[in-house]
Amino acid sequence: MLGRLERAGGHPSADVRLTAEIVGAAQAKNRGLGLDAVNTNGPELYQSLLATTRKHDRLLSETFGSTASDEGHDTVLRARAAINKLALPDTCWALKRPAAKKLLKIQPPKQVMKHLGYRSIDSMLKRENIAELYGALCFLEGAKWLERFIASYKTLRGADFESRRIEVVLLPRAKWGDQAARYAREQRSNLIGIRVMGVIAVLPLPTASVDGLLLTMTSLMTYYIQQIRMFSVYCKLQQVKADFGALASQALNGQTGFAAELAGSSLPWPVLLRHFGSESKRRQTDVFEPHVQPEDLSWQPVANVLGVFNAELHFWQGTDHLGASYPEGVVSYNLLDAALNYCNNIPYSRRTVYYMREALWYELYARYLAEEVLERDVLKQLETNMLV
To answer: Residues in the chain with pLDDT < 70?
Structure first.
């Protein structure tokens, strides 16, 4: 793939330059951690990142008045309050509640109904919060059911969606039991982003108090808000197409058929959105008009957003795609990875690097997309696809 990108872009050596930048940036971060810039091994770096995460969680807790008696529910509420103070754009284009209920009536979630003690789907839909129900689908219904349910989205039309604020919904343990908590442990996160509904579902925590929870929740909620908004923009762009429902269904499975190709590789939708949605590019092209407004394209790295709370949190800026390679594997500097590793007390041998790897793929594609010859080709594809 890299060979194709290099040839198509006129051999800009974008991969080599990105590698050199990552090595230099990692060494600079090591110095900031008080470590040797070059002669630091993986376990030393990992423990130092965990210690920094602990410190920054406590700084954030002081800022928002957390106390030793706070339980998980209190911390989640503080995280939501913290995000509200950021005044981030939090509107999205989401499925209307009547349409969401209609989908469940067509394909009743029998395991959810059984768990809540309902025999009638109509009775459940009348009495329960539809946002909670959509969150519960993820951990109570099986993979085959979920696959069929997402496939049913092909019946949706643009008229089934509306603009509204992203909603954070807490699923209490007393109601949703150990199955929700087990799912959270397996995922190493107690958040579920339900993009089609514009909902962030917060699952019960494994214990009453979790160290590092405020920084982790604040970071993850910010991330999910941005993910929901990116999906929202995609759906807005497709709303007048005859196969809108099919496109939305495919997008939920990570298949954004509208996305262009770059040297034979399908471009991730977030890369396209960030590139052509930047302020300078919006002035040069109207590829997203008339359905998408400039405010829909707002996006910032999570680490940049949280830096406003305390100057020390600026340490995480520039770490989204930053990692250090060792014989036993990669150590991620990404704030989300570090927070999840600390919050879940994950040992070095089982450390997560998911968010760093995702960001690194996006950054690599973005570097090649910035090459003029490749940008022109992608722009032509987008303009053509918008007319289809």
So the answer is: 66-72, 206-209, 253-259, 279, 281-287, 289-291, 293-295, 385-388
pLDDT of residue 43: 97
Global pTM reads 0.89
Task: Look at residue 259 in the predicted model and tell me its pLDDT.
Answer: 61
Give the pLDDT score at 290. Answer: 67
Domain boundaries, the chain: 2-387
Q: Beta partners for 325?
A: 330
Question: How many Å apart are CA 363 and CA 387, to the nearest integer?
Answer: 28
For residue 70, what pLDDT is reported?
A: 62
Residue length of the chain:
388
Q: What is the pLDDT of residue 84?
A: 81
Tokens of 234: 């995609």
Taking alpha carbons only, the member of 185, 178, 181, 224 closest to residue 350 is 185
Q: Which of 195, 232, 200, 197 is nearest to 93 (CA)?
A: 232
pLDDT (0 to 100) of residue 285:
62
Query: Is the four-CA dihedral 181, 186, 192, 56 of positive or negative sign?
Result: positive
